[in-house]
Structures are given as structure tokens and as C-alpha cells.
Specification:
The complex is a heterodimer of chains A (329) and B (192).
Chain A (H helix, E strand, L loop, with lengths): L7 E7 L4 E6 L3 E7 L3 E8 L5 E6 L3 H20 L4 H19 L4 E7 L2 E4 L6 H19 L4 H11 L15 H23 L4 H24 L7 H32 L10 H5 L2 H31 L11 H5 L1
Antiparallel strand pairs in A: 1-2, 2-3, 3-4, 5-6, 6-7
Chain B lengths: L26 E2 L6 E6 L33 E2 L6 E2 L5 E3 L2 E3 L1 H9 L9 E3 L1 H10 L8 H14 L13 H27 L1
Antiparallel strand pairs in B: 1-2, 3-4, 5-6
Helix pairs in contact in B: 2-3, 2-4, 3-4
Classes of the chains: A alpha+beta (329), B alpha+beta (192).
């Protein structure tokens, strides 16, 4: 019989060049870190394991990745016929972004023993982590016995009153955010309409400017409202990105416009340059396209994150004790 | 050791998990609102003080090999020495004395204590595959790969289930590359 034949692999693994995995034996779990030319092992005996903590992480990178990837795919479709090389590059980058964002961890698992708390890097996907936790719990309860609720409560009572928990951050429903992100989407739709139909008349420009001003105002309000509240980090950052994007986009468009005016000015008839001529230049079209794609991505990602925030901050229902061992006790 | 309610912390924000949330399938962190599941086991609860081997030997009783004044409670399953409760180490389902564990570990006979293992098969495979992309380095690396395959064929490899397929492929590629070099040298010699 091979020496390693007794080990059973637990669900969950991670890493590309340095791979982490978990393996079971009847009396311990082996945490393996595999380098290209060697392996490192850490053993945790079931009799020594005190606790397992699994925390779901807010995997906002998936939404950012999906948004950026979708934007790049849109760009690929736009460039496909006229610039196939750039389109291929965009598609490749989109694929990389999708892959990179989907590989981000969405949970963290820690194992506690008498001597310390160790992270289990192999468990970074929730589904696999839950399966592994269930298998580990079965083995640990076989080695240590089940912990009854009475025993646990008696121990907790023996500790006496617990120290006050840290103050909970005030809840923010995010009304300003719920207005902001749809406005960003509206601004993106307007930009797309202007771009596709080449509408450069004064009323349309005014409408676009009004929506932009509303977006900026709402972004400022949202930034103030979300300060020191429980609004998730992703939403908070997105608001700052929106606040930063407008000045950046405006400054860049202004510079390009000045450059084009200098370039095209002498060629203009009667020394007067029609703004439509500048707006019809390819570089301006590309700038508008980038702006539209960015606004769509920001709006969509923001709404998704906000929806998740609303779901997560909903008051959890009263739960019955789920541990079988506790139920039995 | 008293029960420490602050020893369990949320993996996301490191804030303590209150005991009310222990052993629930779903709970939410009070600080970061992250859903978590904190499972505690009997080993977490305070225990009686560990054995100190302090029970003194009385007249006519066997003493510990390492502590003459203390009563022996069990013999070592490897060397047969009598051990007190302080020296007794339960390991792999047997009673060991610290000296036996240390001696076996130094000789590399206790795979259950290995903290690191080199993967010679991966090294041999890398030595025969990657240099082949440039071909010229194989004049050195192919014999090295073959040597490594032969030398470490029986060396302890991973603790996990693992076949020798990498060694087979590495040896095959190394021999192929060496064969190509021999043919090339002979070809050049006889061409002249």
C-alpha cells in the first residue's frame, strides 16, 4: 500500500504556482502548500481543533470585473470590423479580466487550536468551504464528541457579563445612492444617443449638462451621507470614482478640443470653426465612447453592489441552532 | 484556562464574535455585517490542568526512566522504557517517549512528522522539458534529468497519493535527448 493512500482530499484548492489543498486522515487534517518543486505540510489533529470560523467576504471584484469585461466586450464589438487587431486585444483583455475577477476569494476560513489561529488558504470558495467544514466537523465530533448547547451555555454563563462590543456603525439605506446610479445610467444612455445620432444641438447639450450636474450633485450628497456608515466599501469607492471621473473626463476632453481647434482652425472656412466638426473627429468619438462605456459600467456595478448591500443589511431572522450535535444534546 | 469569548474573531474585520453566535449555521458580524459561521468544539472549553507527572513513586513501584522520583504509568511502545505521565506522548496510536520520537525524526523514519518534502519527479521533469525548448542546454540538463530520475526513484516523495509517471516521462525524454545528441555527434564525426 502506498504511504499516501490513506489521505483523502477535501473540496477546495487555491493558487496557481503555489497551490494549497487540504487532505484528511483518520486522526488529522493535512494542510498542504505545494510549490513547483516541494511541498510543505501542516497537521491539525482533530482532538486539538477548538473552532472553525468561516466568513463570507463581499466579493465586489466579481462585479467590477464583470462590468469592465462587459465594457471591453462592447468595445470589441465596436472595433471588430474596422480594427480587428485592437478588437482581438480587447477581447483577450476582457477574458483575462473575467478570469481574474472570477478567481477572487469569496470566503475566508480559519482554524483555531490551543496554540494559535491559522488560516486555511485552500478554502476560498464558499461552496467548497462549506463542504469541507461539514466533513471536518464530522471528523472532529467523532474525535472530541459533540458540544451540547447546555454545556456551551453553562460555560458562557460562567464567564459572566461580556465586555461591550464595539459600537456598530450607523446604518445607511443609501437613498442618495439609489438616485445616483440610475442617473449615471441615464447620462450614459444620453451619451450613447448623442454619439449614435450625432446630435450636437444646444437643447441636447443642455439636457446632457443638466443630467451631468445632477449626477455630480447626487455623488457629492452620497459621499457625505455614506461617511462613517455601514455602506459597503465597494459602493463607497464607486461614488468616489464617479466624483473623480467627471473632472478627469472634462479636463481630457478640453485638452483634446483645444488641440483639435489648433489643428483644424486654419483649415476652417471663414476662420470660424463649427463645434460639430470637432465632435465628428474620430478621437472625439472614441472619447465619447469611452465615457459612455464607463458610465454604463459604473451605473450597473453600483446598482448591483447597492442591491447586495440592501440584502446583506436586512435584519437577519431568528435562527434555530443548526448544529446537529447541539440539537442532539 | 478560562473561556475567552474574544478569542473567536470575524475573518473579515477581526471583531470578536459574541458567544450567542457560536455554533449557529448563519450569523452576521455586528461590525462589518459579513455572514459567518463559527463552530466551536469541546476542545475549546476549559479543561483541568494538564498532567505534570508529579505523582511521586512509592516503595516498590516502577519509576520513570527520565524522572527517577516519579511513578511510571506506561512503557514506551518503541524502546520499552517506563514513562511517567509527563514523558508519555501519544502518537500514531501508540505511547512514545520523546527520545524515540526525536531519534526517528532525525533518521527521517517518521513521515508523519515531515514538514516538507522535495518533489524530485517535478525537478527531473522540469530539467528535461524546459531546456528542450532551446535544445542546446539539453546537453547538460538531459543527463542531469536522467540521473535525478534514477537517483531519486525510490526516495520518499509527496505524502499525498502520487504516481511515478513524471519520473517515467522525465527518464524517457532524457534518454531521447541523449540519443539525439549521440546521433548528432556521430553524424558530424562520420560526415567528415
Amino acid at each position: 500500500m502506498k504511504k499516501g493512500a490513506e489521505y483523502r482530499r477535501l473540496p477546495g484548492r487555491s493558487g496557481l504556482f503555489v497551490r494549497h489543498s487540504l487532505w484528511l486522515r483518520p486522526d488529522h487534517v493535512l494542510c498542504v502548500r505545494r510549490y513547483p518543486f516541494s511541498e510543505e505540510y501542516r497537521r491539525y489533529y482533530f482532538a486539538d481543533i477548538q473552532a472553525l470560523v468561516l466568513t463570507e467576504l463581499s466579493n465586489t471584484a466579481v462585479y467590477y470585473g464583470a462590468g469592465i469585461g462587459a465594457g471591453l466586450l462592447l468595445l470589441t464589438a465596436v472595433l471588430a470590423f474596422q480594427h480587428p487587431v485592437w478588437a482581438s486585444l480587447c477581447a483577450f483583455v476582457a477574458l483575462l479580466v473575467f478570469l481574474a475577477s472570477s478567481r477572487r476569494p469569496n470566503c475566508a476560513c480559519y482554524l483555531m487550536t490551543l496554540v494559535g489561529t491559522e488560516k486555511l488558504p485552500a478554502l476560498r470558495r464558499l461552496r467548497a468551504a462549506r463542504k469541507s467544514m461539514a466533513m471536518l466537523t464530522a471528523e472532529i465530533e467523532q474525535a472530541q464528541g459533540a458540544l451540547t448547547r447546555e454545556t456551551l451555555e453553562a460555560q458562557i454563563a460562567a464567564v459572566g457579563p461580556l465586555p461591550a462590543a464595539k459600537p456598530v456603525l450607523p446604518h445607511c439605506g443609501g437613498l442618495a445612492h439609489w438616485v445616483l446610479f440610475p442617473l449615471v445610467l441615464v447620462r450614459g444612455v444620453l451619451g450613447a444617443v448623442f454619439l449614435s445620432a450625432s446630435l450636437y444641438s444646444m437643447p441636447f447639450s443642455l439636457a446632457g449638462s443638466a443630467v451631468s450636474a445632477a449626477v455630480l450633485l447626487m455623488a457629492l450628497i452620497a459621499a457625505v451621507k455614506q461617511h462613517r456608515t455601514d455602506v459597503v466599501r465597494g459602493v463607497r469607492r464607486l461614488v468616489y470614482v464617479i466624483l473623480g471621473w467627471y473632472p478627469l473626463s472634462a479636463v481630457f476632453t478640453f485638452i483634446v478640443t483645444i488641440y483639435l481647434t489648433i489643428q483644424l482652425g486654419p483649415k476652417a472656412p471663414n476662420a470660424s470653426l463649427n463645434p460639430a466638426i470637432i465632435m465628428d473627429q474620430p478621437i472625439m468619438k472614441y472619447l465619447q465612447l469611452i465615457n459612455v462605456v464607463t458610465l454604463f459600467v459604473l451605473g450597473c456595478v453600483g446598482l448591483i453592489l447597492l442591491w447586495r448591500h440592501a440584502n446583506n443589511t436586512r435584519t437577519p431572522p431568528e435562527l434555530a441552532v443548526g448544529n446537529k450535535g447541539l440539537e442532539a444534546g | 484556562m478560562p473561556l475567552d469569548p474574544e478569542s473567536l474573531a470575524c475573518s473579515n474585520c477581526s471583531s470578536p464574535i459574541p458567544p450567542e453566535d457560536w455554533n449557529r449555521e448563519h450569523a452576521f458580524c455586528a461590525i462589518c455585517r459579513a455572514p459567518f459561521s463559527a463552530l466551536v468544539y469541546p476542545a475549546f472549553l476549559p479543561k483541568a490542568a494538564p498532567a505534570t507527572g508529579s505523582s511521586l513513586r512509592e516503595e516498590g513501584e516502577a519509576s520513570c526512566f527520565y524522572h527517577q522520583g516519579k511513578r511510571a504509568v506506561v512503557p514506551c511502545d518503541q524502546c520499552g522504557r517506563f514513562l511517567c505521565s509527563l514523558c508519555q506522548v501519544e502518537f500514531l496510536g501508540q505511547n512514545w517517549c520523546p527520545a524515540c520520537i526525536e531519534g526517528r525524526r532525525q533518521k527521517g523514519q517518521l513521515s508523519a512528522l515531515d514538514a516538507r518534502r522535495p518533489l524530485y519527479d517535478n525537478m527531473a521533469l522540469a530539467l528535461t522539458v524546459f531546456p528542450a525548448l532551446l535544445f542546446w542546454p539539453t546537453i547538460i540538463t538531459a543527463p542531469m534529468g536522467l540521473y535525478m530520475s534514477v537517483r531519486y526513484w525510490r526516495a520518499p516523495s509527496s505524502l499525498l497519493p502520487r504516481t511515478k509517471i513524471r519520473f517515467y516521462i522525465a527518464a524517457l525524454l532524457a534518454m531521447l535527448q541523449i540519443g539525439v545528441w549521440i546521433w548528432l555527434v556521430l553524424y558530424l564525426v562520420y560526415k567528415r
